[in-house]
Amino acid sequence: MSSLVGFLSLVFAIGINFYLFLSRYIFKFQKHKFNLFVRFSSLLTLLSFFSLMYAYVVSDFSNYNVFQNSHSNKPLIYKISGTWGNHEGSMLLWLSILSIFSFFFSFTKNIEESFQRLTLIIQSLLHILFGLFIVFTSNPFLVNSILVNEGLGLNPILQDPGLAVHPPILYGGYVGYSIVFSIAIAGLFQDRDDEWLYVAKKWSLISWTFLTGGIALGSYWAYYELGWGGWWFWDPVENISLMPWIAGLALVHSLMMVRGEQAIKKWIVFLSILCFSLSVFGTFLVRSGILTSVHSFAADASRGIFILLIFFIVTGFGFLVFLLKEPKKSNTLNLLFINKVSAIVINNILMIIATLTILLGTIYPIIIEVLYNKRISVGGPYFNATVIPIMIPGFLLMSIAPILSWQTNKIQNSKKYVIGFFILSIMVLIQSYFLDFNTWGFIGILLGFWIIFASIIAIFSSYKVKFTIKFFQIVNPHIAHIGVGIAIIGITCSSVFQNELDFNINEGDKFNVNGKTVLFEKIETTNQINFQALRAKFLFDIEKNQSKKIEAGKNYYPVSKMITSEAGILHQWNKDIYFILGDQKNDEWFVKVLINPFVSFIWLGVIIMMYSGLIAVTRR
Amino acid sequence: MAWSDNNDVFRFNSSYKKMRRIFILTPLIVLLIICTFLLTYLLSGKDPNKPPSALLNKDVPIFESSSLYNSMEIIKTIDIKNKKTLINFFASWCSPCKIEHPLFFEIRKKYPELYLLGFNHKDPTADAKEYLENDGNPYDFVGVDADGLIALEFGVFGLPETYLINDDGKIIFKFMGPITKDVLKNEIEPLL
To answer: Which of A69, A248, A421, A560 makes a 20 to 30 Å CA pair with A142?
Structure first.
């Protein structure tokens, strides 16, 4: 029943969007009515999504999708997240988020009516494309042809609270760029007025913030669930989310130029199209099954071709309109040796080069396989050796960029920065001399601290410190950059100075980690609702009274006969101690301990960046 | 003089415009190239789960394994050198293995002369025995690969994985993931 409701409302919503699209040419509406229809179609799409979710919650196995991906004794939260833990459901989630963005955009005030309507019509076109994709190749409302009273279960690796919210938030970013795309295309038809740039800025900030959160959640999940001790692996799936993120960052920065009345419209439109194209491209690569990972639920060539077609239409349409309707009026840029405009231009160039470098590394294996029928993989070493050096000049520049002037070459208090930089360099050099010296470590730590340090100097010397909303809005760029600096320190330390210890030990043994004694208490197996847990219990630092408990182990999921690893992590502000339980051999357990310094800084930095993203939305 | 100056300016302008055209066309060209490659890839029916194997048409790796039911009974590479053999890596904890399992009975029935060798991969003995008791044992010999070293020699990616060895002891076919009726009919049977 709920499946029928879901399917009908999905189809009906697509129908309304056809109608909305045609209304540009045939049935003309009044503004009021038009917006009502947009909202109605959004609500129908949401209804469709929630009826699928309902089928999951009540474990309605007459729905084939629920049967394939759910199980009646899963905890409720994973029944809910099971809705998008599969290909069909996640595409419906995609469409629902697209609808939500259209819904909220229809409430935007102070913009020209024709512009708003055109934007929504482009959104309707996207809705139709993805809606048809769902109906014809990925229908989540198919009826199960056999009568069953139990389902096949959700991939255990996805049964994790962090991962339950990761897809909706990540899609908030990916799909959010659809509205930026639509705004930019509509903006091309609109020469009189630059108001749309402000609207685009707001929405691209929202999308970027969501994307940041989504990527961070995925990365955090990989950190504690995959049990490899790292949080970023330059996996193709990570790369395709990083590309729109960097392009989106470039977009946000070039939209800042609106404030200096120096915006290059052409470039902004190009970036907006690029961001959404990269998002659809990522969806294509993951959903077509070309990339194998936890994300590729099922490989199906027809789906791949359909979504490749969507990618081609969307991107081709975007760039074609861009080619034909290129903005006529173009501001001349006030490029000086060092002013804000030139800083932003350099930032944009670096980010685009970085994006293209990642793109090349990601599709290179596909090109090679088509041409030479050989399978190669491009991994961490390539990306580390290319992307990081490209970004370094940008990091150096961003420390002072926010205080540069739009019009002149002068930097306020330039002496302070020069002196500060020298003192800091010497301090970091001394510090790294006493620890083991590592070039990348030195560069990373210096850059990170310099960004933080320069931003703090800038805040205190250029503005009066007041605790008002306005003050936080003004210093927001500095805050964002401090977040980046903190993240850089975390990234550098956790990757360059990671320490690995291996032990072969028995229950009751004591061993030494970082000068602290650790007791391997016991091995325990327990039965949970939907899995069996094997846990090794450790007591960290037993000499102190407040010793910490750490549990590392594995989960065995009988329904899908899969084993997942569960790392035991002791979080401290300056390091994570990361326990991985290996196999048992000759009555001894293999235990790997990783010491990851300053990992918490990465997450802190990301949170600060997201905070700044949100604050920036509130500022015009 | 004035005339040639004007001409220069004109020429500069037109080449500048051409440059800009090309610049603006670049995204479309890149898009076309990328889409062509992706489409070729999709249409070529390549499956990322099925990388071109380095072992194809090479000799079977050297292995030695004891039987699941009798640790004194040993199987070595030399034992299968002169007979057509189907090698299947499986485990009781691997759910796709369960799906393909019934197909081996079909193969056994249809090709009684084919030697079916199963390798039980990283599995407690008791679990493996229970699994074969419940789902039946289609194999002529079940070798134990408790530490996964044999799988390593074969270059096994993930379970299940199936290899076909001809009577010269060469690997002539490899399949990753559960074999299906289609695979059996279109890819394995023509080789038998």
So the answer is: A560
* A361 in reach of chain B (CB within 8 A): no
- Cβ–Cβ of A319/B51 closer than 8 Å? no
- Tell me: the pLDDT tens digits for A49-84? 999 999 999 988 888 888 888 888 788 888 898 898
Total count of domains within chain A:
2
Q: Could you tell me which residues come within 8 angstroms of residue A176 by beta carbon, excluding any fewer than 6 positions away?
A: A97, A101, A203, A204, A206, A207, A208, A210, A211
Q: Helix, strand or coil for residue A515? A: coil
**Which has more pLDDT, A252 or A376?**
A252
Q: Exposed (0-12), middle (13-18) or buried (19+): which is B191, by Cβ within 10 Å?
A: exposed
What is the distance between the alpha carbons of residues A374 and A391, in angstroms, rounded to a whole number?
A: 31
**Which residue in B has a C-alpha nearest to residue A299's C-alpha?**
B47
Question: b vs e for A395-416, b when ≥16 Cβ sit within 10 Å of the residue's Cβ?
Answer: bbbbbbbbbbeeeeeebeeeee
What is the distance in angstroms between the Cα of B189 and the nearest Cα belonging to chain A?
24
Average pLDDT over chain B, rounded to whole?
77
Least Cα distance to B31 among A314, A268, A248 occurs for: A314
Q: Which of A82, A51, A90, A92 is nearest to A151 (CA)?
A: A82
Higher pLDDT among residues B105 and A154, named by residue: B105
| B103 three-state secondary structure | helix
Q: Does A135 reside within a domain? A: yes
Establish if B134 touches chain A: CB-CB under 8 angstroms: no
Rounded to whole angstroms, the Cα distance separating A181 from A188 reads 11
Provide the residue ranges of all domains of chain B, joining segments of one domain with +: 1-47, 64-191
Tokens of A376: 């190669």
Supply the range of the domain harboring residue A24: 1-158
pTM (two decimals): 0.80
The runs of H, that is alpha helices, within chain B are 2-43, 95-110, 125-135, 149-154, 181-183
Residues A284 and A311: beta-carbon distance below 8 Å: yes
Question: In chain B, which residue's Cα lies nearest the Cα of A301?
Answer: B42
**Residues 6 or more apart from A228 whose CB is under 8 A from it?**
A222
Mean per-residue pLDDT for A371-396? Answer: 85
Query: A485-523, pLDDT tens digit by residue?
Result: 999 999 999 888 888 888 888 888 888 888 888 888 888
Chain centroid to Cα B42, Å, comes to: 17
Pairing of the two strands B115-121 and B141-145: parallel
Residue B168 has pLDDT above 90, yes or no: no
The residues facing B142 across adjacent strands are: B118
Q: What pLDDT sits at residue B3?
A: 41
The pair phi, psi for residue B176, each rounded to 5°, is: -100, 140
The stretch A265-283 carries a mean pLDDT of 90
Is A184 contained in some domain? no
Chain A contact for B46 (CB, 8 A cutoff): yes
**Confidence tier at B2 by pLDDT (50, 70, 90):** very low
Report the alpha-carbon angle B42-A295-A386, nearest 5. 80
A366–B93: do the CB atoms touch at under 8 Å? Answer: no
- Tokens 């800038």 appear where? A458
Nearest to A561 by CA among B102, B68, B22, B128: B128
Of A128, A158, A188, the one marking the end of a domain is A158
E strand residue ranges, B63-186: 64-66, 74-76, 85-90, 115-121, 141-145, 161-165, 171-176
The encoded tokens of residue B52 equal 């071109």
> Angle at CA A210, nearest 5°, toward A206 and A211?
115
CB A339 within 8 A of CB A408: yes
Q: Would you state the pLDDT for residue A103? A: 95
Among candidate residues A158, A183, A206, the one where a domain is terminated: A158
CATH of domain B64-191: 3.40.30.10
